Amino acid sequence: MLELGGIIILGILAQWVAWKFKIPAILPLILIGLFVGPISTLFTYDGSKWIEPIWNGEVGIFPGERLFNFVSLAIGIILFEGGLTLRFSEIKNVGPVITKLIIVGSLVTFFGAGAAAYYIFDLSLRISFLFSALIIVTGPTVITPILRNIPLKKDISTILKWEGILIDPIGALVAVLVFEFISVDAGSEFTLTALEEFGKIVLFGFTFGFTFAHALALCIKRKVIPHYLLNVFTLASVLGVFILSDLFAHESGLLSVVVMGMVMGNMKLPNLKELLYFKESLSVLLISLLFILLSANIEIQDLYLVYTWKAVLLFAIVVFVLRPIGVFLSSKGSGLKFNEKLFVSWVGPRGIVAAGIASLFGLKLVDEGVAGAEYITPLVFMIVLGTVLLNATTARLFAKIVGVFLTESKGIVIIGASKASRIIAEYLMKGGRHVVLVDSNSVNIEKAKERGLEAIEDSIYSDSLMNNIELNDVGYLMALTGNGDINQYAINRFKDIFGENGAFRLITPDEMKDPQSSPEGGLFSPTDDFIRLTEVARAHPTIQEVNIDSKEMFEKLIESTRADKNSIPIFLKKESGELEILKSNIDDLEVDSYVDTKLVYLGKPFDPEKMPVKEKLVIEEPEA
Question: For position 536, what pLDDT does the model report?
């Protein structure tokens, strides 16, 4: 009981340390597992481990093959959760570079690392290519903490983010297929019978996964399952499919749950987000337990297998040769610059799926007596720990060296995707700014995407926004929702993350009553709240630019727009094209010169008889 309780406590503590110091959780988890496992034998008087995962006749947590069973089921749940996150529509939308990186990069790693392991460690072809299949997988759980605090161009962040998200379940599927191809006839040459067995595994894996995904989805849609049982019923279903598939075709369980997750993730299920949140929480607990157990289960002699120059050479080939080859081949003909390709080549940490599946397959193949199987787990752990340590400690410095580190963050996040927000966002986008709309209203998000805008359907109360590395180049925050409390909450929570250059919000109706005491960070004018903004956007969905040649003219225009119910001033556009966000307190505006500047406002064009309007840029949203 002490050991089991200790693993849970140490696992959650490792997760907290990872969150606190912004490092991948897999790093402290594996290090703790190694410390209480094989490394602890160097300190104990009888050479025993502080935590022994398998019962050895005297001590241990799991008797017999129970550790294998627990690891199999836990990995199955983790892979199902990974499958749920894969959207086939996203693969089409992420661009050719990411698609080619997943295909070409994976092939380069698979064949290159397999050949390297074969020649360097003199392993069999089966074991060598199982190793290479396992290290294909990167993963968002390791990429995100490493890049979270490195300001990069959106193109680079997007490539690394989506590579991790998409290759996670795809790489797991490849690894499962390779393992099952090995396991059908381990220890002898492939025969027709072995190929038939492999065909059975693939057939039952895909059939059970596809069939039960649709069956469970139908139950959810028809509300056969009560809401309070939905999460645990889904968990039981996943475990049931895993076991049932395994009974029909040995080792097909993992394949079936990966397919089941992928199929369900691409359906329009009403409660999919709740399932994802539940599975994510469960995965955190399982990952915490798994990696301490699996690391502790490694023997000290297994560590000595990779304590050699051969391991260093293999690591160098995988990281410094194969990764750059894959990236440069995948990005050929793209808009990425040479230094950007170098940075993407440098960042490729392997993650939780690789280490988890490697441990499971290693345990099974060693138990079956497959020659060289004892190398699988320590070699993959060496690649995982090495790449995570390398990238976590050097990614920021390398970004500065190759010149992809942004010294100034000019991207803009707009909280709220109403009609007015969409008009303003489109104006900014056409001006070359990276702008992102955030809203929990799916209708608003859909309308924004129809206009070609980048939009995220999410709540500002969740943590996912802070972990989105595609927002690393954001330095301005504008809260434009109709709720004053939400706007203020967004400012308080995200000011230090997204508002390093400025965090602004709409004024409230109460603040409009006293225009002379405008709040710090108030937007546009002391006479325009969300209601006014919405009314003007509905009546006149256009953005106008008016030439200015002096401060006096600017102040006169500001007074005119504030007095006019058909217009709201929003930006001051400088000669260079740089925009200054207008604040409700005009005295807070700092401008060196008003020569050749323009007032940008939302609303009805001024009467040319009264105001000097020359060039006009019109951004218009059609009526719904």
Answer: 86
